Amino acid sequence: MIELAKKFIGKECLLYRFDGNQQCQGTIKEVSNSAVLIESKGQLEAINLDFIVRIREYPINKKGKKKSVVLD
After folding, report:
1. Is the pLDDT of residue 8 over 90?
2. What is the pLDDT of residues 40-71, one digit of tens each?
3. What's the predicted TM-score (pTM) here?
4. CA 14 from centroid of its chain's CA atoms
5. Cβ neighbours of residue 37 closer than 8 Å, sequence gap 6 or more
6. d(Cα 33, Cα 8) in Å, to the nearest integer?
7. Which residues are paired to 40 by β-bridges?
8. Nearest residue to 19 via CA among 55, 52, 54, 56
9. What is the pLDDT of residue 72?
10. What CA–CA distance (Å, rounded) separates 50 from 62?
11. Alpha helices (runs of H) in 1-72, residue ranges in sequence order
12. Which residue(s) pair with 25 in the sheet?
């Protein structure tokens, strides 16, 4: 998972955690052995990599703008 998460560094992503339907949104800044550092709204947040189930790039529409509603 560490190597896969490193492919998303510098991209705005949605990170899904297994504890409920919680998701985090932000730009991935750094990936270490046990955590992912994301920046969201000017603040940094570290998330334990063991709790992340899914990482996906934030979806964009045909015009290249971020989608306002993301349904999964």
Report:
1. yes
2. 999 999 999 988 989 999 887 778 777 766 66
3. 0.80
4. 4
5. 28, 29, 30, 31, 44, 45, 46
6. 15
7. 43
8. 52
9. 61
10. 34
11. 2-6
12. 14
